[in-house]
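To assess whether the prediction recovers the assembly geometry, we first specified each molecular entity separately, as shown.
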Amino acid sequence: MSQLRAFTMPKWGIEMLEGTISEWNVNVGESVVKGQVIAQIETDKIVNEVEVEYDTRFVRLIAEPGQAYPVGALLAVTSSDTVEDEEIDAFVRAFVPAGGAAFENLEPASASSAPPGPSGTASPAPTPSPPAGQLAPAATGRDRPAIPAGTLISPAARELALRLSLNVSVIQGHGRSGRITLQDVDQAAKPIRSVHGGGPVAIEPTGAALDAFYASPYAKRLAVTHSVDLATLTGTGPRGRISRQDVAAAAGISVVPARGAAYEVLRMSPTRKAIARQLTLSKSTIPHFYLRMSANVDALLALRAELKRAEGSAPSMNDYFIRAVALALIAAPDVNVQVHGDQIHRFRDADISVAVAADKGLITPVIRAAQTKSVRAISAELRAVIERARAGKLRADEIEGGSFTVSNLGMFGVDQFDAIINPPQGAILAIGAARLRPVERGGGLGVAQVANFSLSCDHRAIDGAVGATFLQELTALIEAPQRL
Amino acid sequence: MAVMNMREAISSTLHAEMERDSNVLILGEDIVGGMGTAGGPEAIGGIWGLTGGLYAKFGPNRVIDTPISESCIVGAAAGAALSGKRAIAELMFADFVGVCLDQLYNQIAKFRYMFGGAKCPVTVRLTYGAGLNAAAQHSQAVYAMLTSIPGLKVVMPTTPADAKGLLTSAIRGDDPVMFFEHKTLYGDKGEVPDGDYLLPFGHARMVREGHDASIVTCGQMVGFAAKAADNLAKDGIACDVIDLRTTSPMDEETILDSVEMSGRLVVVDESPPRCSLAADIAGLVVNKGFAALRAPVEMVTPPHTPVPFARELEKAYLPSAASIEAAVRKALAYR
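The predicted structure of the complete assembly is given in tokenized form:
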């Protein structure tokens, strides 16, 4: 028997449940060498390149680009030497995903199933004979056929069930003679929807008193709601009947549009879903409080202008701010924390997550040990990482594990805002635009470029005074930028 | 307003219209009854009890017992109508339209279209429907078949008041009307307006009003649907229940208005599902209301079989409040 191996959906990080092949970089039958990029996989956080970990040949690609697969799902089959199609078929049928079961009716994998990982191996085991008296086709262990022979199922339904690794024997078919349709599989793969509506409701027709009028039921309903006298109307509906348009025109309202036409349904991308999950968790469980301070940035602007004159280019204001935040975090280490249950992890380095708007939503690449890097170095690193982020090529380790986040909307003209903490971090800084504002100067009034800073803190770990210390240090650095 | 059952509402409307217009005549099997027996006219007969007293009042020229021949009844009615009368033809069981189908679909449905706009004011009253253990040849709901024929209007009253309003409109109108009377609804009581009362065709009735799902139905099924909606309302699920009243012309506007609000359609039909009224309405909404639909259209119909005779089987055959309620929940549960 040839050495067939399974290439399965990898598990990158504890939260990853499923991934999407955005692109295959190999073709069927292509030989690959260790380290070669074979696919792009998108998780709810990033798109990442996948390198093959051993020299081999891809004998079958199973996953379709654009489709989500649970962690551990079979994506492709590899083999170092030539194999027959039937052998691959048998291997695919016998494959049992390890862990990461994303669907409630996916049967639990047997204890001896393949280990997870990008190259989890699952060589076919000897087929055990089904226990006597078992009515259903052998339904446990590795010999479980993906879809038992003789199952009445449409071709598209079969394909979907295979792709989602659904156990079709528990799906009730609604086609002729119980044949399983695409709709049956689609519905089986989605979570059950509760239809309980709550307390009793009144369903007496509201327009019943208007029976004498030749008006459509909905027109009568509208007439009651908007106190329109139907006797004053001339019907323009079918056969001269008063229609909802007639009543709406008389009441000066717009006719309720069709529900389906009022909006467009956009599916959340994996990234969007991750943002939604993370921020909902944060805002609903973390006791936020906000500290606001402003800083005169005239000196910083002057410093930057001078550098630009001298060297032809200068880092952006944001780069300076990140550097200032890094130094302020080292000065106020109690803000440079992550919160894990009843433990506070205080970080030695200022690992600063920088919020960046990308096509698919917000991402936060991390500048590690930013206090050790010059403004120029921060600038270069950030530019490179943003470019990779926008191309969807960030590695998981480039976006994980920051100790503090900086979000700057100044470039969009936002004066001031409060940000939501990015858990498990303890705080986030929101930076607004620098604007000319009146300031007290030498006992009189002058104007200066002033920017607003708002610090959102997790009160479980950070008290007001601690946060204030950080902001004082930060604004002092910005107002006397020589130390940057 | 007087409270009466549907039988009384139809009978009194027949009396009123025959009194009002001497051109109105009625013919059918055994509608007088007792002719030639010792008891004389009206001694026996009129198995649905709808035509009693007509013979005594209007005489043998306007109240005519016919041989047992549906083709004779409808054919004679068509001829009378073409020559200026307003004919009411009674078919004791709608199941026998097959016998007079040529008179219906190839003759009276075509006269106005083919012969210079000839008026043919025939009202064919047909007793239809299952639920009385009358077996496969006397229980069918054949309205879908006649609804499919251009040139015929198809009417199905559900309440005594609607029976009066629709029958009056049918008799006074100039077109052939198939007036379907459900045999289980004859005893249903309700308030009926006094004096002249006409209901236009193609004008559906809102029986219940909610926004979660639209139940569209007609005839005997309206009561079942209302019961299902009342059960669902206790659970916080509010349904529109639409009684179509007439299936040709059909009130598209009311159906689409409702589905555009609810996004979910449950059609309840007493005829088997293939080429049925349920299929027709489902097709209409899929075609014109697709943007509003949030779940597949649910069709609650009998199975594709003849109506069974055994009481238990007949009960299982017919849609019920429970099966309608289940269909609404299924539509709401669509993911």
